[in-house]
Hints:
- Pfam families: YiaAB.
- InterPro entries: YiaA-like (IPR038972), YiaAB (IPR008024).
- Residues 3-56, 67-119 form the YiaAB two helix domain.
- Keywords: Membrane, Transmembrane, Transmembrane helix.
- The protein is mainly alpha-helical.
- The protein has a domain at 23-112.
- Helix content is 80%, strand content 0%.
- The protein is built from four helices and no strands.
- It has helices spanning 2-24, 30-58, 65-88, 93-125.
- Helix 1 (2-24) runs antiparallel to helix 2 (30-58), helix 2 (30-58) packs antiparallel against helix 3 (65-88) and helix 2 (30-58) runs parallel beside helix 4 (93-125).
- The longest helix is centred in the C-terminal third of the chain and has 33 residues, at 93-125.
- The radius of gyration is 19 Å and the shape is elongated.
- It starts with a helix and ends in an 11-residue tail after the last helix.
- The mean pLDDT is 89.
Amino acid sequence: MAFIAASWVAVLAGILGFIIGLWNASTMQLNEKGYYFTVLMYGLFAAVSVQKCVRDKIEGIPVTDIYYGLSWVSMILTILLLTVGLWNATLAPSEKGFYAFAFLLSVFGAITVQKNTRDSQAAKAVVTLPKEGTDI
């Protein structure tokens, strides 16, 4: 239960920190804020997709190669887009670091929340066997 709570705290802290940072960025134009927000949302989706594809493959659930590849390309692309955006941004190095770490925290949180959700659903699906000596 503690890991589930910590995962939710991580994803929410990362997302809220990133968005609050964008809201308070007075030197950043609205189109820049939109760019970083879109990269964050795309990154969260890509991270969950990668985690799901990897887990499905491990469990023997069929995953198309195209979706598996697109998930990985999307995750790599979001990291690349954020890196290029921050590299060229006219922000203080501390602000650039803040956005990078808020992004990574939210992506990590999204992956763990998705994993915990899937584990919880799998645990509910397990049929409990009757005790010895009881009639079915």
